């Protein structure tokens, strides 16, 4: 299996640190708002990487953080007159809902920056002890960038060409820095801001140190894959390398993977530019699987332009897969055995499964992998009539497995049983009795979504399937 490594600018054979295991850290969102579909791209892409590794039998330890302390969160909290933790907790919950909708597996661990401050204090202290960090008068602690000889190795930048374009450069004490390239590890609190005690000043961590520490705590000093969007290569990941490798004295991550941007009108979709759609807006209009299909229909390292046309075409393509699955299910009616013709057709299936895997092995070329799924759809549509049920089951299983690696579900929508409906109606009646009309309405809407319409009559509640 080959992975394009940003560090070497090459596709490299993947060799895990420990046989059969993969440790993977994916930088997660800063939670001050609903996530937009640009943020969803790394989530979908790296979830698919994870699913393929699992399919290959690897035990994947997948860690993805939430950045829950940040200037933007504090600003949003001040504007709303609530605490920073109110904001971050709300949007972590909303983000998890979106992730579940997009069929993104929960991470093995989802650490929160605010719960890992002790580890950050410890790593900053180590960096100070080793001469990689220094404190200035107001208590800010900086990383001494030029001391790390390999600085620039990930972003392929020459340290002398850098103008100190760090996101956090002007946060505080900028004038007191030894070098404009130095970046913040710890910054003093400002009035009304959340803060923690430290040996240097009451304050909070810089953004980069958070990921170095969370990755170390949950995955160890060395990991296999570190991933995120391409805007994180510099300075975030470059700084993470400088911190982790200086503190631990070891190579941090062996493979660095970065997805290209999701654009709109060929400009990066971002909250600051205001040209974004939230995942919530899109999933109100489309089945979330359509968004997933749309993302995977492009290679993760190619920029992808969002448009209603492409979403429509993704919707139609996905429908072809779902229809083929339904058609196969309709043929899975009895216990029988494969005919000779079925056996021959299954050889074609084997070739197509191989084609799917070859595409995924080539730096996760999901566009080609989906093309292989469509060839299986075509095979199914052209051969299942007159074939045995056993054959339909075989093809169905393949379609389900390969689509599942892409996080696409082809299973039939779960049928809601009469007894479940009765139970929900009873719950709704109870809610009404307790004057919890919001809950009562929610139950009615939930049922409607499942195709059950309620009618309140004099004889009680009647329901029908629509
Ligand atoms: P942020 O909340 O800005 O730190 O972003 C969380 C993740 O989403 C990071 O991996 C970003 O690189 C990624 N990301 C943000 N905007 C986009 C975009 N328009 N296209 C692809 N990835 C993005
Ligand atoms: Zn990070």
As residue ranges, the low-confidence spans are 167-173
Q: What Rg is obtained from the alpha carbons, in whole angstroms? A: 26 Å
- Ligand identities: adenosine monophosphate, zinc ion
* Biggest β-sheet: strands ordered side by side in the sheet: 4-3-9-10
Number of separate strands: 15
Q: What is the residue-averaged pLDDT?
A: 94
Our count of domains comes out at 3
- Residues in helices, as a percent range: 40-55%
How much of the sequence lies in strands comes to 5-15%
For this structure, the CATH topology of the largest domain is: Rossmann fold
Task: Encode the helix/strand succession as letters.
Answer: EEEHEHHHEEEEHEHEEEHHEHHHHHHEE
Helical stretch count?
14
CATH class of the largest domain: Alpha Beta
Structural class: alpha/beta
Say which CATH homologous superfamily of the largest domain is assigned. Answer: HUPs
Distance N terminus to C terminus?
48 Å
Q: So, CATH architecture of the largest domain?
A: 3-Layer(aba) Sandwich
Largest sheet: 4 strands, parallel
